[in-house]
Prior knowledge:
The protein is built from twelve helices and eight strands. The protein is an alpha/beta fold and 304 residues long. Strands 3-2-1-4-5-6-7-8 form an eight-stranded mixed sheet, with helices on both faces. Helix 10 (250-260) runs parallel beside helix 12 and helix 11 (264-284) packs antiparallel against helix 12.
Amino acid sequence: xxxxxxxxxxxxxxxxxxxxxxxxxxxxxxxxxxxxxxxxxxxxxxxxxxxxxxxxxxxxxxxxxxxxxxxxxxxxxxxxxxxxxxxxxxxxxxxxxxxxxxxxxxxxxxxxxxxxxxxxxxxxxxxxxxxxxxxxxxxxxxxxxxxxxxxxxxxxxxxxxxxxxxxxxxxxxxxxxxxxxxxxxxxxxxxxxxxxxxxxxxxxxxxxxxxxxxxxxxxxxxxxxxxxxxxxxxxxxxxxxxxxxxxxxxxxxxxxxxxxxxxxxxxxxxxxxxxxxxxxxxxxxxxxxxxxxxxxxxxxxxxx
Length: 304
């Protein structure tokens, strides 16, 4: 395989794709081509502004037909479309006689879709892999989201070498995974840490929305989260836990359950994470009295 230049192409400039591409360009790479799909004028203008030297097309067919005598994708290709569209993109590439697989490195950036979805490209000479950024991408063209983070990788050796190079230049760390099962568990862990936090905080803000202004509620929760994260990463185990669970305060838990009243979804959510906390505390608690209170709390939380 020839030594690849710092040039790449992108299929799918959504939140992840556009942010990763912009971070690479800021690190000295060149984005040769972008397949953007059918977007509105505003989206097209944003792409042209972010990647002025790139050739943009609405579809793979349009791009390959325009460059029928020369492969416009180069050596490194990122597929950053929605998970359910990856198979279709691969089929379009394989079935187009103008697309040259041999010598390419092709990544998809999904955290869950199997690397096997790229198998037909591998059979035709490409080195393939899943290269997944472990970060929350809330908006497009946010290069900061793609730097100083962890990426996970699973795939072929040549693709792994390129993944290492990319993460170094983005001042990030690369986790080499050994199986699809590890990929699924890591993605699940990320969903627990990120999505459940967002849902918890938005639910908390809703509980106080009738008597605290939105701006105050946002600042209040931000301060609470900062102190929680500080405790979480300066302590060990369950030492960072505070409140009634940590104290084994059965009465407060009962008051919380009563206050939730007819909020069925929030009540079940509260019970679920509280029970997980109680189970963790029972594993590490040695005091007989405290363990007894925790067991009582567990019975209350499990009651219908």
